[in-house]
């Protein structure tokens, strides 16, 4: 794309000195220094920094029931072309709620929609054949497929007397009681407490059906045996990695042993906003984690306190960028019951602009990407992330309604500058770039303004009201 523009050199010492930090700045009189030039924006598709993005390919209570794998198959081509390299699928096996289950009430770990149980053959998402077709199509588009793994608790078993609790519990899982596959049959001996363990991990979910991960039988069926859950999912079904649900319910050693046995990409749901807690978990397991520390700082900065200085605070991506899986929304935060614990729609794109320009491995939420009001901007942000978001990170300026951050790039990559504005006014600032005597433009396409850096790399950049811009160099012709 070639853009012919009237470019304004905005270097006026007296004008700059007259501006305060919170002034709305307007451009100088265009008659003072006009010049006609032809700018040729960088072809972002020709710049590859090796970074990619993951898609959370579901939301809570997806509809229509029984058709989800087919719906996703139709979107794989677009997602791959947009720069996504992994699909995080919902829990793929049968839960107690049958055709209504989102999978977080696991019953049969090997029923991918082929056995009649819990009043259905298909899962909420479809049949085994449809899932296998989806995985094959994803692989043909160079996309890895991530399995959602729920191993804290089980649900949907038959009732039996449990001597360790001196009452009946729903802990019998066999061919006629919630485990039609006949693989990984269970009874009360495989849940806490039992004859070998009185361990209580304080699980909040299904405490009477809380799997004993110390037990050799459970370990064999979850990850050690050739036909264990982990190896069957990887070697038979074709899953490439793991999203571990509710890891607060079992010890980090469980994830560590799983990954040592089968490997693959891994991200754990440790719902904690303390970056130190998240970092300690990474060190114990070598698994990535969802970066709740960044999610909460974005929520505080953009919504809860409306103060962008919260983006100066400590976050996981600063210390563990390769293990921090950043996000702005997921199936839990977007539930109606979590209205006070999510990022508002009006600020969602600014939050995405943040995670897609900063270090970390960003996740896109399905309903955000498929929202026609967001889709084109998210596609552009993914392009920017996969191309220009490189090099060290430096905050150039921050106050309650402005945030300016620089990725310094490298010898092969120019990097970028992110400018977020939450005020109702256009903002413009003189900042120090890494680009000397270079023309600059906004690659987010939210502003048609351009700029020119001086011999010291200083340049004015601007941002529309309540928006963001992402600046980098643009050649001329």
TrEMBL record:
Cofactor(s) required for function per UniProt: Ca(2+)
Species lineage: Bacteria, Pseudomonadati, Bacteroidota, Flavobacteriia, Flavobacteriales
Molecular function per GO: alpha-amylase activity
Keyword Transmembrane (UniProt): no
Keywords, comma-separated and alphabetical: Carbohydrate metabolism, Glycosidase, Hydrolase, Metal-binding, Signal
This protein's record includes keyword Metal-binding: yes
Enzyme Commission number: 3.2.1.1
Domain of life: Bacteria
Official protein name in the record: Alpha-amylase
Signal peptide: 1-20
Residue stretches making up the Glycosyl hydrolase family 13 catalytic domain: 52-385
Gene3D superfamilies, per database record: Glycosidases, Golgi alpha-mannosidase II
InterPro entries: A-amylase_thermo (IPR013776), Alpha-amylase_C_pro (IPR015237), GH (IPR017853), GH13_cat_dom (IPR006047), Glyco_hydro_b (IPR013780)
């Amino acid at each position: 794309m070639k853009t012919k523009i009237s470019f304004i050199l905005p270097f006026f010492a007296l004008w700059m000195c007259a501006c305060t930090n919170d002034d709305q700045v307007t451009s100088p009189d265009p008659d003072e220094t006009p010049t006609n030039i032809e700018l040729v924006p960088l072809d972002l598709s020709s710049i590859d920094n090796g970074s990619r993005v993951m898609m959370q390919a579901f939301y809570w209570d997806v509809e229509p029931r029984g058709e989800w794998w087919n719906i996703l198959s139709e979107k794989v081509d677009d997602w791959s072309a947009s720069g996504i390299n992994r699909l995080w699928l919902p829990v793929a096996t049968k839960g107690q709620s049958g055709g209504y289950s989102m999978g977080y009430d696991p019953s049969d770990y090997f029923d991918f929609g082929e056995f009649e149980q819990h009043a259905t053959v298909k899962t909420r998402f479809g049949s085994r054949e449809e899932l296998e077709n989806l995985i094959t199509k994803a692989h043909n588009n160079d996309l890895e497929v991530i399995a959602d793994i729920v191993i804290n608790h089980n649900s949907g078993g038959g009732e039996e007397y449990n001597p360790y609790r001196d009452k009946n519990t729903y802990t019998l899982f066999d061919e006629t009681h919630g485990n039609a596959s006949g693989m990984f049959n269970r009874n009360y001996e495989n849940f806490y407490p039992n004859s070998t363990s009185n361990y209580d991990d304080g699980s909040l979910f299904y405490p009477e059906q809380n799997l004993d991960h110390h037990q050799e039988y459970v370990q064999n069926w979850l990850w050690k045996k050739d036909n264990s859950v982990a190896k069957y999912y990887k070697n038979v079904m074709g899953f490439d990695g793991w999203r571990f649900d509710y890891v607060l319910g079992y010890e980090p050693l469980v994830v560590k042993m799983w990954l040592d046995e089968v490997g693959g990409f891994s991200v754990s749901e440790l719902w904690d906003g303390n970056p130190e807690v998240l970092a300690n978990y990474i060190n114990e397991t070598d698994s990535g984690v969802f970066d709740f520390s960044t999610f909460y700082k974005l929520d505080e900065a953009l919504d809860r306190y409306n103060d962008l200085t919260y983006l100066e605070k400590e976050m996981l991506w600063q210390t563990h960028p390769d293990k921090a899986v950043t996000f702005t929304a997921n199936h839990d935060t977007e539930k109606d019951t979590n209205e006070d614990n999510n990022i508002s729609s009006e600020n969602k794109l600014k939050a995405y602009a943040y995670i897609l320009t900063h270090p970390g491995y960003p996740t896109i939420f399905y309903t955000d990407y498929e929202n026609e009001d967001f889709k084109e901007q998210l596609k552009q942000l993914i392009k920017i992330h996969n191309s220009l978001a490189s090099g060290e990170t430096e905050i150039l300026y921050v106050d309650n309604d402005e945030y300016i951050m620089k990725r310094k790039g490298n010898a092969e990559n120019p990097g970028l500058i992110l400018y977020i504005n939450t005020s109702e006014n256009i903002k413009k600032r003189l900042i120090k770039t890494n680009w000397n005597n270079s023309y600059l433009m906004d690659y987010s396409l939210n502003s048609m303004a351009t700029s020119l850096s001086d011999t010291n790399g200083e340049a004015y950049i601007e941002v529309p009201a309540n928006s963001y811009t992402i600046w980098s160099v643009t050649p001329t012709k």
